[in-house]
Amino acid sequence: MGMIATERATDLLAYLRGIRAHGAHVRPSTFDCAFYAAGWVQICTGKDLTAKWRAQYKSFDEGRALLREAGFPDLADLAAAHLTEISGWAQSQVGDIAAMTEDGHTALGIIGGQQIHVLSLKGLDYVPLGRAIRVFRP
């Protein structure tokens, strides 16, 4: 079962601080936007959604091909298979997972209020909440 909202905000801040402290960099199949979001889902639910995917691809293109082979057109559809989809970003809460499009591909981030915390090539960053095209609740 999910956390109450105040715990989610506090725990999300701790999760983001931990990532910054470790200086985590994007690495396909080890720590990319899917693993970043799944790490947060594991904190919220105790479920590890990464076991099937860890160390299975060496590039984002290879990862997208594996998703398609597994029957998921993109990361949002993979998230929908494991999480509850929320009707639009206006209904979102802190700690929900956001799917957005970046350079023609779906990426995942974590909602932190009016922004989405995202993993970029430079590290953690944020984008406006309005970028969310689908939202999921852990």
UniProtKB/TrEMBL annotation:
Pfam families: DUF6950. It comes from the Bacteria. Residues 12-137 form the DUF6950 domain. InterPro entries: DUF6950. This is DUF6950 domain-containing protein. It comes from Parasedimentitalea psychrophila.
